[in-house]
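User: Hi! Is it possible to get a structure for several chains at once, not just one? Here's what I have:
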Amino acid sequence: MDASARRRRPPLPVVLLVHALVYAGVAVMAVPLLWMVATSLKTEAEAGASPTFSTLLPNAPQWVNYARAFESARLERYYVNSTLAAVLTTVLGVAHNALAGYAFAKLRFRGRRVLLGVALATMMVPVQVYFIFAYLLCTRLGYVDSVQALVVPFLASGFGIFYMRQAILAVPDSLLEAGRLDGMSEFEVFWHIVRPTVWPAMCALGIFTFVFSWNNFFWPLIVVDSERSKTLPLALADLSAGLYVDSWPVQMAAATIMVGPMVAVYLVLQRAFVQGVALTGMKE
Amino acid sequence: MLSAMRRGSSLPAYGFLAFPLAALFLFTLAPTIAGLGLSLFAWDGGGVPRFVGLSNFEDLWADAAFRPALRNTLLFVALSVPPTVVIGFLLAVAVNASWFAGKTIARAAFFLPTILSIVAIGFVWRWLLDPEAGLVNWALRGVGLEQPPDWLNDGWWPMASIVLVSVWRGVGFCMVLYLASLGSISRSLYEAAEVDGAGPWSVVRHVTWPQVAPTTAFLLITGVIGALQVFDIVFVMTGQVESDRTNVLNLYVYRQFTYGQLGYAAAIGVVIFTITILATLAQLAWYALRGKGV
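Assistant: Yes, the chains can be modeled jointly so their relative placement is included. Here is the combined structure:
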């Protein structure tokens, strides 16, 4: 195997060129965030001037920009709102989708095929078609401007149900039968046998759901009305429009505070994120 | 499975399904049906909707702002989706090679924007693309370009910027999905190609690319669906200016919604939905026909 790998290796200049191109790409991916952090530590004059080699990095880091960012906008409030919405959506959403996925994978009932088809069909519909009446319903329920509006509409999704169903289909029926013979109820079978077995899939769906909820923009833009209920993406959009503060360095400090923790968590849990976000997308 | 199904009634299943399906029905399915119906009405959200037949669609066709939005949306789909998929494929092939050093780092870097909010990405890129203080034009001037474009204001450059940033954001996702499917290609195919004396590029072109066709199909179909709904990136990067060069359908829906033109907004939603279905069916049909032809 080693010999064949060596035989397949292209000539050295090609190898070097490919590395150069890919790592140039890596730089293009990293520079925007690094530039954001660099700008956040600059003075107004440094940031506003045309860049030169000597002003790429701040001369003396202006940590005060971070204090000014917290003064100019209620960042901690947006953090609480976003975290609450994302955590609730993740926990409740995975639970609902797993319950429905179990029913579709392992239980027999009238209307199974039709209901599954309908649930899957909802995946195809763009949010622009249903957001108007979903919004009106939230208004009627008194959800507008509260965390319910950001959680309840996402309790179940066609995609989540399908994903959990596929995972649960792979659980051997003999395991479930054994539980039933021991006198377990269907819910006990789900909780004590199915849930532990498909836990990795639930975690992957959980990360996917968390990232989706954390970054969701269009729906919060519709259902959030007031300053105190804003989520981070809404606040970022307002920041970007210059609503809070006019200074680029302070804006960049605020943006760094908003995206920094997510980036840090991603860098630590990279493998889990890649599997959760991308491989969940494979739907297999 | 069959024995489990034979016993008992439907009751436990309905217990499992009650809450999830109720949520799905109330917040997605019913609003979808109502939304499709609303496109035939004039309604500002209060009082009784007035039935107007197809006149919302006739108005759309005559609306001077609608056609540019439609054109820009299709332009965005055509310009952003194929490059994202192809670059993602090439990156996956490159870092998957046994001789590539640093696969994990490269994957982490390219995948990073996938987990960032598009709002944050648009915000940072606006700063990078600033004509004076921006890093991009500094680099362009550095390589001898005297008059770099004013990215977010000049002619078609705003649309080009939106496309570039979307490709920048999307390649990592495609790369990761391709990496997963590259792992399942049989080694014997490569060995056979080698015996035939195929060069590295020829192997990529004639062995690897056809073998990952299902992933390509998946990425193109879902990519087109997503790109037809483009909103966040446009809203943040150029949304403050209403321009016929950057207005897209979804932004138009949002504006009509904020003006209280709910029936009209619903009609645009129906247009997006219809294009989504047609584009998806066309691609599925194309793959089916091609599959038979081979």
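Chain B has one domain: 55-293. Residues 1-6 of chain B have pLDDT under 50 and may be disordered.

User: Great, thank you!
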